[in-house]
Amino acid sequence: MKRLVLCAFVLVVTAPAMVAAQAQQTDPPQARPVVLQKVLVKVNGAIFTKTDLESLQIEALQEQNQRALSQLDLQNDAKLRQALLGITPALLSGAVDELIILQRGKDLGLKMTETQFKEYVDGIKKDNQLDDKTFQAALAQQGMTMEQLRKSFEREYMKRGVMQREVAPRISITEEEARQYYRAHPQEFMKPTMITVREISVLVASQTRGGESVVNVAADEAASAKVTAARERALKGEDFTALVTELSESGSKANGGLIGPLNLNELAEGLQKILGPLKAGDIAEPIRTPAGYQLLKVEAKDDSGVEPFEKVRQDVANKVQGERGQVEMLKYLDGLREQAIIEWKDDELKKLYEQFRAQQKKES
Questions:
Q1: Rounded to 5 degrees, what are φ and ψ at 286?
Q2: Longest CA span, the chain
Q3: Angle at CA 247, nearest 5°, toward 243 and 252?
Q4: Quick one: which of 270, 287, 273 has its CA closest to 199?
Q5: CA distances from 296 to 189, 241, 301 (A)
Q6: Does residue 116 lie within any of the structural domains?
Q7: What is the distance between the alpha carbons of residues 348 and 358, in angstroms, rounded to a whole number?
Q8: Is residue 236 part of a domain?
């Protein structure tokens, strides 16, 4: 499987006219090299080259390893070379499918205009708060030119256009189908428990001795007593917000100690255990924190439950259409593949591709 190991491939030839000129001249002019790409497969006349495959392989491995990779890394790292064997069949299949879809897009007359490309670029600049200079710098940092970006956008535009025209009409759903899915999958539309609290925070100063942080016992006991007394006063009916103003030492004091709403499931496990059983109006026992002591009152609590259908109608539709879309897209691609002219120039890669496609059909 040495063919799958990434390595530079550049074939330089001399144009025939230059060869003839050299035969007639004693001091021939410098021949201009012509770089030819090794073609791996042709799909309806469109080519997929060794360089194209290498680019996809490096990109996929970089995503897996969360670091930049070079061809040298792949040559010297046995694990990465082995990883290529695992990812290459899927990359080949995806590349062939993309060429088929792009050809279909051309047949449908789809073409991205300069205006649309400008809108895409302007959207990227706006979302990332970039001006022209920083945008160009960002492109350069990623090793991409504006022309490469345009080609990338155009491919996505074509694929999305084919989907919208040829597949989307097949996946529309009725109101009743949406309701049936909602009733059958209530767990997918659960809202989390949201909680809003008010806090009184009393800090305990610490000191550094011998390189370690230590707390004065008397100061700690005083802070604990202060928070405990605050809780007792609140339980007897004193206004908690007024107690925040009087006693709290945290930044939340400015807005009455209010924090939230918070997703209970996203809180630390210890806080979940403390706040989970409480109802609106309940006051927790004082909590020791790294900074001191904290007293929490549950201001509001919206328990988890299944969202009403009317509220999640679009989410339901998206889920059903997403599942149906995958099935319909596979059927659609199968039809296009049957009509496509696929000419492999590498027998080993052809074998990998056919094995992968056979396994996909078996699993579908």
A1: -55, 140
A2: 110
A3: 85
A4: 287
A5: 30, 11, 13
A6: no
A7: 15
A8: yes
The total number of structural domains that make up the chain: 1
CA dihedral of residues 232, 236, 242, 243 (deg, nearest 10): 0
| DSSP track, 159-174 | HHHHIIIIIGGGG---
Residue 285, domain CATH: 3.10.50.40
Residue 316 lies in a domain: no
Range of the domain at 299: 193-303
Q: What is the distance between the alpha carbons of residues 199 and 195, in angstroms, rounded to a whole number?
A: 13
Any domain includes 224: yes
Q: What is the pLDDT of residues 279-335, one digit of tens each?
A: 999 999 999 998 899 999 999 999 889 999 999 999 999 999 888 888 898 899 999
Global pTM exceeds 0.90: no
103 CB contacts (<8 Å, ≥6 apart)? 43, 44, 46, 340
Distance CA(83)–CA(90), nearest Å, equals 12
